[in-house]
Amino acid sequence: MHIGGIRQCPWAELVALCDSNEELLRQRAAEHGIPAKRCYKEYTELLARDDIDAVTIGTPNHLHAPIVIAAAQAGKHVLCEKPIALNTEEALRMVAACRAAGVRHMTAFTYRFVPAVRFATHLVRSGVIGEVRTLRSRRLQDWGTRAIGWRQVKALAGTGEVGDMMAHRLDYTQAMVGRIARVSGLLRNFISERQGADGTVQVQDVDDWAGVLTEFTTGAVGVYESSKICWGFGFYAKSPDDLDVHGTEGSIVYRMEEPHVLRIGRMGESLENVPVPAEFLLPVGGVPGPLAGDPLQTFRFNEIFEFVDAIRHERDCVPSLVEGAQTQAVVDAIGRSSEERQWVEVPVIE
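and the corresponding structure tokens:
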């Protein structure tokens, strides 16, 4: 998805690739026409190039912090996949390194760029449904019992479903409503062993289901559920991904299967379909952008447009690593709440 965005962004050029897996590196180089002399197994060698202005980081989570910090120290702007770190302390070190180096920094919270989510955020912030009272977020998938690699290993991922899928929803709902102040969460690991493609049994020691009750600083409350174990629900882009937001003057309903439509209703009235206006379909910068193709996929390229536009105009990326760290603080609080069986306050990240 990063490369797809780079290829379609008129202000960006793919210069080099890095992967510790040599076979995969050769495959990607062939796919994208990158010569061997610009392919690296070690990220430090890539960062030493003086013709690279920015890097995107899509490694397992435990490698995010050292690579982001090294990239910042090398003077490179950074876009890092979420969750940005294994814990809040690590995330804060990443933010500090980027600030000290004066580089632009961004968290790859892809779902912020769904046209319907962008439009819903605009409507909520504009007060179209009044003050938000409640919201409900649901992300349900059927991943079966097959192995999912490093994502099922705590030492490599930090958390499971709460950091993988729920983190996106925790982020964009905070962008809509305001900061989450406290949480009451429950995490469960229902499938402790998964089956590899070769028939081997692989241990899973992270959550595959997460449920959270939140209170926002505004007084609004939220209910979130995220799961990989909902049999029959499918997975990836075509499985249930829902958001309902209810305010003092109306409601907004978002469904992932209709990324260019919202449903909006008023008290005593029925919900009506409202198409997303053209301005929210275009990527940042106003260029025609990656609209052709499957709308469940094309929005994912738009985060690259935001990253590059922020670099070009010397402004903060949205969302930055600060927002990534704030969501990490929420994720950490959820984990602590689940362990302690009590409400936990979420610290403010600035």
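(Above: one complete record from the training split.) The chain has two domains: 2-110, 111-345.
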